[in-house]
Design goal:
By secondary structure, the protein is an alpha+beta fold. The protein has helices at 24-32, 134-149, 152-163, 172-190, and strands at residues 3-10, 13-20, 36-39, 77-83, 89-95, 101-103, 111-118, 123-130. The protein is built from four helices and eight strands. It is elongated, with a radius of gyration of 27 Å.
Length: 193
Amino acid sequence: MASNLYAKLVDGQPITTCAAEEDTDLIAQLIADGFKPYDDSAEPPSGPLIPKQPTIEPTPVLLIPGVSAAEQGATTLTGKTSAKSDGVVLQEVSGKKSGTTQKLAEPSLSEAVPAYRDDGDRIVLEWEIVPNSPTKIAAEIARLQSELAATDYQVIKSYEFALAGEKPPYDPAALHSDRQALRNRISELEGLL
């Protein structure tokens, strides 16, 4: 006896049930109650989750001869892509006029979440890529904080050696630089929340 899934959306979330193909009375009741066949065959995406990035369309600007573009308030955009040691690629877009930089979503902070669509005759499960997912950002902040805490003993040991007038066992400049990089990254991620 094969059964089929049925669902209806309430506040964007599915309420599901199933009914045997042979149970036509139950199926009729489900349809009368607003249920529709439910297609949950979509698999979550695998591999790196790359959200759709905003595109920058060039805007035609009519320039006055003899007057610089900056004086006329024209904005020029530049793009830069850099790779970090952990394989994450950052893309930055800068507006020269405003001097602001917009960091685009990092694939490592993206998350696939289920989304449900009413096709009219059925409910369909789809997967959406959420850039800068708060869940992923919080997990990355916790990981970085743990990494920072794991080097606390090096700071304490170096301080004890300095108090005793001995050479510290760790390079203080490198230790500070590494720890400051972690604190900077944590602050950057906290700004995304």
